[in-house]
Write a structure and sequence with these properties.
220 residues, alpha/beta, TIM Barrel, eight-stranded parallel β-sheet
Amino acid sequence: MNDPISGLTAARVRANLAEVRERIAAAAARAGRDPASVEIVAAVKYVPVAQLAAVAEGGITVVGENRAQDLEAKVAAHRDAFQWDFIGHVQSRKVKQIAPLVRCIHSVCTHSVLEQLARHAPPELRVLVEVNVAGEAGKDGVAPAQLDAFLERSPVPVAGLMTMPPLAHDPDDSRRWFAALSELAAERGLSQLSMGTTQDYEVAVEEGATLVRIGTQLFR
């Protein structure tokens, strides 16, 4: 889904959100977890500013944006309607723009971004380190073998880890990568796991996700 979303209604968002919550509850039950430990981050990359009122009225409270320029425009129009996260690739030159606007950056993975966080991160900002758990060439993320060194260099406290597993048609194919991220976090005492999107969030919840980044299923 690459086209801007149009025609959103609060009723449609509310119904989709209820379905997602039901599926999260079922996945959490299978894993012996409390569903309240899983937070839905609505991915609004393709939701225009004009459609965000329906998103808020539909009961969504946390949104994630992928692009710094769009984040700035959306926060300007709807600052108090949501809690804001940044979930896309972070360019170091954009950290100054992003950091004051969000409660959490999910995708920190370069030393240049760490350097900018040292200069511009407000005290309340949470950050997650993106890990390339599958070792995919050309993909963003810190290699698992380099994670400890990266964490040691972070100028701000790291709340947890994030990953995007390899593209797969079967959601269960992502399980091994979610489990690997969960293990990396547990070994380092990190409590937050941002993993799982529309196609595989139930598997992610079963493997310990505390933040799921969902777009299509909330807005279809």
